[in-house]
Structures are given as structure tokens and as C-alpha cells.
User: Fold Diaminopimelate epimerase from Acidaminococcus fermentans.
Amino acid sequence: MKMKFTKMHGCGNDYVYVDCMDRMLPNPGKISEFVSRRRFGIGSDGLICICPSDKADFRMRMFNADASEGKMCGNGSRCIAKYVYDKGLTRKDTITLETLGGIKTIHMTVEQGKVVLAEVDMGQAVVRTADVPMDWPEETCVDQPVVFAGPDGKGFTVRGTAVSMGNPHFVTFVEDVETAPVEAVGRIIETSPVFPERTNVEFVQIVDENHVKFRVWERGSGETWACGTGACAVGYTCVTLGKAGKRGEFLKVEAKGGMLQVRTGEGDAMTLKGPATTVYEGEIELPEELLEESLK
Ligand SMILES: N[C@@H](CCC[C@H](N)C(=O)O)C(=O)O
Assistant:
């Protein structure tokens, strides 16, 4: 079977987008794993299927590079808005999107008939550890020292904040993102039993009161060049701890692949704003074994 796709990214967080309005892909997790391989596939952080919805204008299903399904994807939501508008699947410049993390509203900025910027109402940042979920004795884990097991079996401590943006995040502050141990420590925290559903991990450097930088280790995909839900978890943590940003105003949250803007509003309602880019369109032959019923 040949699969048509569009390669898109939001600040370097790149996914393979597939129009599934007429038919869902068989084994989307396995297809994600197959296409995401950087050297043997298309190369991406995962796969995003654009599907019909009976609750919203469209529905997103997103899969990480390791085949796991994610509940929410901030950059993916913005790219879907661009996809459906630019391809004429909608004429509305505000759409609703059903995700496993709830229904999100996306507002688009259109220039010369194309979407250049998209703003997503991301919903509430949640810190109740039972909801993250995090195995933790307190009701919240906000700027707390957490002990993880190192590869040598010895414990090491990372101070951080656990936040759910529909998916789990652990936000920790560092002096310099360039030298942060993103892979070594990110991988340990992602897979630690402290986070029973694994977690995304953000390493944050304060630049000034309106601007922070972060690097992210994503659950199921490793280090990516940006993460929309991660940027919201970072923005929320910076404002809540008084480290940067003001409630009700956009904070510049700079990822490795570009600049995102995040607002922490009333009731911790988060807004994410940033560019969405189409890279190219293509077609790929999927191996027969990926399409077998038994894999579904
Ligand atoms: N890159 C995404 C988040 C993707 C899902 C994440 N890896 C998870 O499994 O929770 C974003 O832009 O939010």
C-alpha cells in the first residue's frame, strides 16, 4: 500500500501528517515507528492522523516514534490547523479539534491564503499528582526534590515540577540548556516508576523576565526540537514560581527549533502560539507486514 503524506513541523517538532478523513490507517503506531526512523524512514518525531470527528471540526490521533499514542500534541494541533485550512478542508480560521486530551480550539493567522501562525487554547495546566500521573506522597509536586535511580542503581535528586497538559511533564531548571544532560537524565526520568505512564521532561534556562529557553526529552520520541505541551508546562511553571513571565501575558519560550509563546491565564488556562510549516508532500510504500490485521 502506498501512503500519501505531508511532512510538517512546528519549530522543528516534525511529524508525518496523513489525511485519514475517509479511512483510518491500519496499525498507525507501527506505521509511526516505520516512517519516523531518521536514517531508514521519512524521519520524524512521529505520525499524526487527521480524522473526522462527531464532537469537533476534526480529530487528531498522534503517535510517537516508538509507536505509543500520545494524548495531546500542541505543535501537532497547530500544524493540523494549517493543513486543513491550506488544503481547503475548511474555510474557517478558527476550528475545534478533538484529541485524547479533550477538545481544543485553534485560531489561525492567514496571510495570502495560507496559515502562518496558529494559537491553541490548550486547556488547564493540572498539578494534582494523581492526575499527572505521578507516584508521589503529596497532592502536588511543585519545585520539589525527587529521587530517581541512576544506571548504577544509586539514587540522584532532580528538583522539579510535575504538570499535566493532557500529557505528563516534569519541568526542571538548569543554568545552561546547552550543557543540560537532556538524554542521560531525560531518559531515566521518562521511564522512572515515579511516572507510571512515563513522562516528558523539560530542562529550562531563564534568559530574562520575558524569555526562557528549554530543551525537551519527549516520552516515546527522545529529544525533539520543540514541544507545545512542554512549552505550556514550562510557561506555567515559570509564572507559578515567579521565575519569569506574568499571568495574562505571553512569555517567550524558546525551543531548540524556534520561538513559541505561552500565556498562563485565569484558572491556569494555557494558550500556545507559534508558527506551523509545511516542508514537503510525498508518498511512501508501506511493507505488507505492517498492514496485517493481527497487528491491529
Ligand atoms: N510534541 C508534542 C507532544 C507529543 C506527545 C508526547 N511525546 C507524549 O507522549 O506525551 C507537543 O507539541 O505537545
Notes: The chain is about 15% helix and 45% strand.
